[in-house]
Design a protein that fits this description.
Strand order of the largest sheet: 3-2-1-4-5-6-12
Shape: elongated
Distance between the termini: 31 Å
Number of helices: 9
Strand content: 15-25%
Radius of gyration: 19 Å
Length: about 270
């Protein structure tokens, strides 16, 4: 099979540049396009140079329709509005759409899922192997421990992150809720402040820390009578997310239409 031709959305951003580097470092994929927001001062710049590589001749453009004509997939770690704008074009062109964007609303996710009867979408709050293994373990532990064990999720990210809790924290929360057999949106606590009253049994708590250049730290603690169990993951470089997204794209190439996750990519969906 020939190399998969990939577009990087948000190619001028930190994650976009990491994705460009990951494609350059890997076999089986080539950079087919570099998408950036209309009006960006980076439009027309060389994607390779921006990523700290030799010039590759792929210029940043805001025209996804044009660049997607000869592409097979798009790697999309942008912002919700941009991702939703990309969904229809990716589906119309038959592109594999790898969505790593966080901060998506319920209606945003509904839009993404609406195209999966005719398009391939791989979506995850985190593309790393370690985090997805962590989610699988969290689900198992939550299933094994009863409500005498409270669940608290703490995440730390760099000062520039704009959404909280992180997509990864929510993914871990969903894993815990799934293990408990309860809907997360009805059993979560966020942003405690002031006189909050006693903790409600069975709820899943979230805390978000922001500062410095942290790529992403996550911990899930199960607090029971007289003992605590903490499961954690530390991301040392965003390149791990880029390589995970590339792995997802290559895995999804040729798959039937549907909505997939990194658990599917890694063979963890039955856990």
């Amino acid at each position: 099979m020939s190399d998969m031709r990939l577009i990087v959305a948000g190619a001028g951003g930190r994650m976009g540049r990491a994705l460009v580097r990951a494609i350059a470092e890997s076999k089986g994929a080539v950079l087919a396009g570099a998408l950036e927001a209309p009006g960006s001062e980076l439009l027309g710049k060389d994607a390779g140079v921006l990523a700290g590589l030799p010039a590759n001749g792929v210029k940043l453009s805001a025209d996804l329709w044009a660049m997607s004509k000869e592409a097979d997939g798009i790697l999309d770690f942008t912002v919700p509005a941009a991702t939703i704008a990309n969904v229809a074009i990716a589906a119309e062109r038959g592109l594999v759409h790898v969505v790593g964007t966080t901060g998506l609303s319920g209606s945003d996710n509904a839009v993404i899922k609406s195209v999966t009867n005719r398009a391939v979408v791989v979506q995850s709050g985190n593309m790393s192997l370690g985090v997805n293994l962590l989610a699988a373990v969290v689900k198992r532990v939550a299933k094994a421990l009863d409500q005498s064990f409270d669940i608290e999720i703490v995440e730390t990210h760099h000062r520039m992150k704009v959404d909280a809790p992180s997509g990864t924290a929510l993914m871990l929360g969903q894993a815990a809720a799934s293990g408990r057999g309860v809907p997360l949106d009805e059993h979560s606590e966020r942003g405690r402040d002031g006189i909050t009253g006693a903790r409600r049994p069975g709820n899943i708590g979230f805390a978000s820390l922001r500062g410095g250049t942290v790529a992403g730290d996550h911990s899930v603690t199960f607090l029971g009578p007289f003992e605590r169990l903490t499961l954690s993951h530390q991301a040392e470089d965003r390149m791990l997310f880029a390589h995970g997204a590339l792995k997802a794209a290559l895995w999804a190439h040729g798959k039937p239409p549907g909505h997939y996750s990194m658990a599917d990519v890694l063979g963890l969906s039955d856990i």
